[in-house]
Each structure stands twice: as C-alpha cells, then as structure tokens.
Amino acid sequence: MAKVVVVTSGKGGVGKTTSTAALGAALAQEGANVVVVDFDVGLRNLDLVMGAERRVVFDLINVVQGDAKLPQALIRDKRVETLSLLPASQTRDKDALTQEGVKNVMAQLREKFDWVICDSPAGIEKGAVMAMRHADIAIVVTNPEVSSVRDSDRIIGLLDSKTEKAENGARIDKHLLLTRFDPARAARGEMLKTDDVLEILSIPLLGIIPESEEVLRASNLGSPVTLLSPTSAPARAYADAAKRLRGEQLEVVVPLERKGFIGRLFGRKVA
Amino acid sequence: MPPRYPRLVTNIESPSFIRLRGRSFMALVLAPDMPLATWIAALDAQIERSPSFFDNRPVVLDLAGLPREQPDIEGLLSNLETRGIRVIGTEGAHPSWTGVETWGRPLPSGGRPTRDPTPPDETARRAPPPEPAAAEPAGGLLIDHPIRSGQSVVFEKGDVIVVGSVSSGAEVIAGGSVHIYGTLRGRAIAGFSGNPRARIFCRRLDAELLAIDGVYQTAEDMDIKLRGRAVQAWLDGEAMRVAALD
Question: Is the Cβ–Cβ distance between A208 and A181 less than 8 Å?
C-alpha cells in the first residue's frame, strides 16, 4: 500500500527540499520504491539537490496537463535504482496545477511506488495546498525559532482542513522534523527548546537534524546528504527519521559530529 | 438607540483600556431587476401589504442583477427615498459604472446572508403578539483539538471550551465565557456581544490579548507574574482583573 507524504513548513528556507531528498534516498536505500515529487512549480530546486538538473525533459505540469506520460517525466536516480524524481516546471507557475490533473498523477504514482514524497513550496497558497491535498502523512519541517514555529502551526491548521483526508472526516498523520538544530546555541538558550516546540505544535517528533556544513556541501554537489556522506551527523539523523517513518520505534537523540582524538582535545572553545 | 462609539476608559487600575464592541445589524437586501418600472410596481404592492415593513430598517441595494450598461441608479434611489426606504449602501455595482460613491457608502466586505425575513401581512391580521418562546438553552461550543495560528473560532451564543491550546495568531471569540484547557498563546475575546459577566479561564496564560465585553489588555499590559500560570480574567466595572487560579 503506497504512502503519500508531503514535506511542508509554511516558511521558506527551513529545509523542505533537503529533507525530501535525504528522506527519499534513505527510504530507497533500504529497498523501497520511492519517488520524490517537486511541487514548487516555477522555483524548482529538488532536481538540483538530487543532481538531476541536466536530465529533465518533461515535468509535473506536462503530466498534469496530459502533454507527457508519467514514465516519460520520471527520472531514475543513478546512485540508487529504486529512487526516482518527478521534477517541477521552472517556466510555469502554480496556476498550471489543476485539481483533477494532480489527483490523476498522484493516483498513478501510488500504483508505481511504495513511497511518494512531495516537496511542498513555501507559503500557504495554491501550490502548498495542492502538494498536501492527497497526502496520507505530513512531515512538518520546522527550525527552532519563533517565526518558523508559528508558520508550522498555521500549516498544521491547513493540513487539518484542506487535505482530502480532512475533508472526508479523517485525520492526516503529522510528524515534526526539527531541522537546523544547533546543540551549542540550544545550550546557550539562543534557540527555542525542543520541548517548547513540541508543546506548541503538539505533534509527534520524527527527528532532530543538526545544523551541519555537510548538508550545504551535499546540496551543492547535487546529492542527498544521506547518499553523499552517510556517516555524517545529519545523514544519520535523517536515516533514523526514515526508520521512524516506516514505523520503527527509535529513541530520538541528536547525533553529534564524530571527532577524532585531536578534535576532541581542541573541539571545545574556551570562550 | 443612539450609536455608541468606541470610547476611552481610564482609571488608576487600568491606565489605557479602550472599549471596543461588536454589533451586528440585519440589513435588508433589495435586489432590483429589469425592467425597473415593473420592479418598482412590485415593491409598491409589497409596501401596500405591510406598510411599516421598511420603517427604520437599513437597506442595502444589490445591483448585481442589473444589466452591464449603466441603468438610471440615481432615479431608482430617489424613487426608493420617496417610499421611505433608507438605502445605507450599495453592492454589486459594475466597475465601469460612474457615480458609485454618491449612492451611499461602499459596504465593508464579509457580510453574511441570513435567512430571508418574511414581511408580515399587516392588512390581514392584527393578532396579539405570540408569547415569547422559552429562552433557548445556552449550549457551549466544545472544541477538542488545538486552535492553530490563523484559525478563528467565533461562537456568539455562549461559552467556548477548548480542550487544547490556542496558538499565537489564533483567536477564540465567544458571546459568553472562554475556557482554555491548555496554553492560551493567542487571543481570547469573551462577552463579545455585550456581556460584562463573561470571563476568560485558561490553564496557562501566554496570551497576546484578553478582552471581555470590549475591555481589553494586550500582552504588554499583563502582569508578568501571571505568565505561565492558570488564571481567570473578569470585569470589575470598567477594569479587567486577572488573577491566578491556584
């Protein structure tokens, strides 16, 4: 039974696209058939993070409007063969997404894959609503700061009212993915505490992804961080989050960078 | 009743409270159609049957049913005026029409249609008014999930009970009291339709705004010692009091 997941946040720049790529790759590495779908029509990025930007021919809009068949638009990953990408169109805008067309595409994706992971655009307008519309599960990506938390709260309200599940009286499963978490700043009290974020949003925690240079490096190299440097702290956090998504019970810990002996000696700043 | 304006209330207890009230009026909506002469004739027949129906009633003129070429609205308005119909505003005018601003104030958006009022046939009966019905049981509105940022719960008939938190940027508006079994981070507005006995209760106070019957306090005015505590808020005359419950 295929699961449709929307990765959403309300606020931009919190790590939706990075998380979509990393979780999609982590699930695919364990053998599941996964497609990551870019819903950010007009501002597509997922193709870059997946390193597939030079292989895009057809896109989501072409399939929605019936100009191309779904298999023509799907791009299979070169590193993990069970991972595919359905890119967004860069030249169109969100108005090109029709309700009927999106529904159709999602139904086809459900037949082909075990996991359909939709990368939502920022905002609460049509694009974001279309991305969440057919989801069974929502991953709400949040940074530990007040504006991100409030925007996430707003998005959770939309998830409970504008999705197909909600309109049929059912509840969409919602999970919190706390990203760009900086343990040092958290210790100094410069960020919202995890408990506070959980209390405000009151949805279960899927994982805590530490802030890391590795994430930026992976994006720039066009690879999900879980594939490029699987032993790095963020990659391990994403891999654990993927396991929890599949239903495994794992305690949430914040993975830290592994340091060598010298690093441990000089790793702590005095001031 | 003369219209009441928001007024400034000051006393030592409450240095800067402004009283705001919500009031809803029911406006009748008249939607003329073509040909206007026939419509006016039908209106006259209506007035014949119930002469006092339009007395002191605010009337809104819905022009959406008229053809695109601008009809003689000024003539229509003066026709209505001679029949004692008070047009307070118009809506649905085509954007290309001129002189819209002279036909009464443009109406604020957000008006909701209500059930159609039926004009009484005053010529037929002069029966005694019916016994006032027993007061409707004032039920509360129970919500058992959190109120998220951007959501607004409005219940004019009585209390609102929320089993969960009210987020920053969310609001709960009740004609009666507001009860929050969770953290109140957004706005709570009690006694909205003029009930000074309404109260606000919450298990944890972190509110952006508390208001009872128009008297309000923002987060800045609140006693810092009450933050994070279970509190109730009520009106003592014109002053809002907030006290811990435990």
Answer: yes
Q: Which residues pair with A142 in a beta bridge?
A: A178
CA angle A187, A190, A194 (to 5 degrees): 65
**Cβ contacts of A200 on chain B, cutoff 8 Å:** 165, 167-168, 183, 185
SS3 of chain A: helix, strand, coil, percent, to 5: 45, 15, 40
More confident residue, B232 or B100: B232
Instruction: Write the ipTM.
Output: 0.71
- Of the listed ranges A179-193, A208-222, B157-171, the one predicted with least confidence: A179-193
Which is more confident, A29 or B99? A29
- Contact call for B149 and A202, based on CB within 8 A: no
Q: What residues of chain B lie within 8 A of the CB of A202, using their CB?
A: 146, 164-165
Helices A194-201 and A146-159, axial angle in degrees (round to 10):
30
Task: Say if residue B8's pLDDT is above 80.
Answer: no
Q: Is the peptide bond before B137 cis (omega within 30 degrees of 0)?
A: no
Q: Comparing C-alpha atoms, which of B71, B209, B55 is closest to residue B122?
A: B55
Cβ contact, residue pair B148, A160, below 8 Å: yes
> Quick one: closest CA in B to A197, which residue?
B167
Name the burial class of residue B193, with classes exposed (0-12), middle (13-18) and buried (19+) by CB atoms within 10 angstroms of its CB. Answer: middle
**What's the rounded Cα separation, in Å, for the pair B66 and A23?**
58
With helix as H, strand as E and coil as C, how does A16-55 read?
HHHHHHHHHHHHHHCCCCEEEEECCCCCCCHHHHCCCHHH
- Which of residues 138 through 157 in chain A touch B, CB cutoff 8 A? 150-151, 153-154, 156-157
| pLDDT one-digit tens code per residue, A92-124 | 888 889 999 999 999 999 999 999 999 999 999
Q: How many helices (H) and strands (E) does chain B have?
A: 2, 17
Chain A interface, mutation test: which of B167, B185, B204, most A Cβ atoms within 10 Å? Answer: B167
CA distance A150 to chain B (A): 7
Backbone angles phi, psi at A161, to 5 degrees: -130, -30
Residues of A in contact with B148 (CB under 8 A): 153-154, 156-157, 160
Chain-centroid distance, C-alpha B223 = 31
Look at A150 and B169 and tell me if their CB atoms are within 8 Å: yes
**Is A79's Cβ below 8 Å from some Cβ in B?**
no
Residue B49 pLDDT greater than 60, yes or no: yes
First-to-last C-alpha distance (Å) of chain A? 53
Kindly determine whether residue B150 and residue A154, on different chains, have CB atoms separated by under 8 Å.
Answer: yes
Query: Quick check: helix, strand or coil at residue A99?
Result: helix
Task: State the count of interchain CB pairs (< 8 A) between A and B.
Answer: 33
Q: Is A202 on the interface with B (CB under 8 A)?
A: yes
Q: Hey, is the C-beta of A111 within 8 angstroms of any chain B C-beta?
A: no
Strands of the sheet containing B141-143, edge to edge, are: B141-143, B160-162, B178-184, B200-205, B231-236, B239-244
